[in-house]
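S1.2 Input.
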Amino acid sequence: MSTSTDLKEVVREKYGQAASLAQKGGTSCCGTAPSLASCCDPITSNLYDATQAGEVPAEALKASLGCGNPTALAELKPGEVVLDLGSGGGIDVILSARRVGPTGKAYGLDMTDEMLALAQENRRKSGLANVEFLRGEIENIPLPANAVDVIISNCVINLSGDKDRVLREAFRVLRPGGRFAVSDVVVRGEVPDAIRKSMELWVGCIAGALAETDYRAKLASAGFIEIDVEVTRVYGVEEATTFLAGQGLDVEAAAREADGKIVSAFIRATKPKQASCCAPDCCR
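S1.3 Output.
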């Protein structure tokens, strides 16, 4: 497996391509960006209904590379502060900002300059004043402890080479009683090694997917309680064939092995209301 640094550079390059394509009027999905592994239609398509699509600039929707719709499932309340880890073109940040209203706030965190530039333009077009985009990495969130009420993310945690650190950081910045509510790809059962080893499939959120049991264990280790994994999509042979194409694999055989084992899920957890420090820096 390549190093975490190598992985970040691949992710940065591919998501930068997606942002540039969206700014030119293209879309990240359905094969319009030939070198972008994450354009696989079965995972990224049909995530937002017509009402939600109408609430965001077109470029934000075109740059969406998620696997779910966390803003629809997170039950955001007016006045809450929300943080989107890996916010991309800003679609989930803008939708969240509308949910929490003018007394709340929505932060977006991303490490890709092109995506941040696109997100800032989408914020301007939206006319929302309660949106702020931050440059940084999800392993080192540039916010103080106990700063947000809800953390969302849309198929980004799988892209990290250090998921334990991401979850510890999420725990740190959440207020006591705060909610972790993310969409992600999860593995149920054994997935072929060839998929795990493909860097391109890391960018597509597949090879980096945690097993459901591992996800639960890592959340608990970070300090979270009330952990729940709700499957929102199951990918069978047909979908697996689509997102495995062009990866140098025996697609037919790999798709059969992956049948039903890769799913999109909505993952919920809570920071205890009286949380004790679980790491040297968590009380800063």
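S1.4 Remarks. The first strand starts at residue 81 and ends at 85.
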